[in-house]
UniProtKB/TrEMBL annotation:
UniProt name for this protein: Phosphatidylglycerophosphate synthase
Keywords: Membrane, Transferase, Transmembrane, Transmembrane helix
Annotated GO MF terms: phosphotransferase activity, for other substituted phosphate groups
Keyword Transit peptide: no
InterPro entries: CDP-OH_P_trans (IPR000462), CDP-OH_PTrfase_TM_dom (IPR043130), CDP_ALCOHOL_P_TRANSF_CS (IPR048254)
Gene3D superfamilies xrefs: 1.20.120.1760
Lineage start: Bacteria, Pseudomonadati, Pseudomonadota, Alphaproteobacteria, Rhodospirillales
Family of the protein in this entry: Belongs to the CDP-alcohol phosphatidyltransferase class-I family.
Transmembrane parts of this sequence: 26-47, 83-103, 109-131, 147-169, 175-201
Example GO BP: phospholipid biosynthetic process
Keyword Membrane: yes
Any one GO cellular component localisation term in the record: membrane
Organism encoding this protein: Aestuariispira insulae
Amino acid sequence: MFDAALRRLIDPPLNRAGLFFHRQGISANTITVAGFFVGMGALPALALGRPDIALICILLNRLMDGLDGAIARQAGPTDIGGYLDIVLDFLFYGAVPFGFALMMPEFALSAAFLIFSFIGTGSSFLAYAIVAEKRKITTDIRGLKSFYYLGGLTEGGETIAFFILLCLLPQHFNILAWVFGSLCWITTVTRIWAATVAFGAES
């Protein structure tokens, strides 16, 4: 929901950093993969009961996720770059609630609901992008992307804010997961409705 507005704040410093790394010969894909492994450090950290360390991993992952896009804007986006970016992002998103389930067995049900909800937002997002590409529909409201980015109530910015809140208040994981998961389903339903309106004219 806030991603487009946030881009106006974070893009200028990221673009300067992206230019620096590009000049050093560091590729966007290198940062993407490195950021993924850094972010996945949150999984064992949470399993060991260290949400503070997990928080550091999450923040570094998101910083590197922004940086890889900035480098790609300098070098030019590639299909494999866009593919790796979205696949590794979704794997990372699923790892965080799984880590909380490993931390405390009583978190398992709400963690499962959260991952279930992420499948809804992820599949509705990617399926829309596939049809948008087929129809040559584009947008740059969230910056130059490898494929169409459909917004919603729970986008990347909201998800990261939610992860930060979970790490700061892990004792409230259950209620936070149920609330955010429900918001994800609102996003999924609105995306399905948007697709029906945009793509259903010929039905």
